[in-house]
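[agent] plan:
  1. take the single chain provided in the ticket
  2. run structure prediction with default settings
  3. attach structure tokens to the ticket
  4. add a short note for the reviewer (M.T.)
[agent] executing step 1
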Amino acid sequence: MHFYELHEGDNDVFADLLLVREDEMDPEEFFDLVQSIRRRVVDSFEQDTLVEAIAEELEANYGFTAISDDRLTAAVNVSRDEDDNFLADLEAPEEGTDYLTILADLQAGDPRLN
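[agent] step 2 finished; step 3 output follows
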């Protein structure tokens, strides 16, 4: 198995997506393929992020599998504190969640934080 990553971001928001493929693809070839797909879909994709749109195309036509949350079998929260360790409920919808990203730019010593 060979693993690839798509990273989309600017100074405020970012998204990462992992892909897996049985056959290895040269990194430069992968870059060129992603760029050609990006150019084709950048102005017309319907997914939440550009990397999701590119991953969908890679999966449909180039033998990649996108590793997304909907494919998870299990998710475990791990902490040094015993009470904070748990198996996440992947079936439970997140009630009231209507955002993709929250950005907080906090600076140490900011009087608003006191």
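[agent] step 4 note for reviewer: The domain at 1-114 is CATH 3.30.70.2710 (Alpha-Beta Plaits).
[agent] ticket updated
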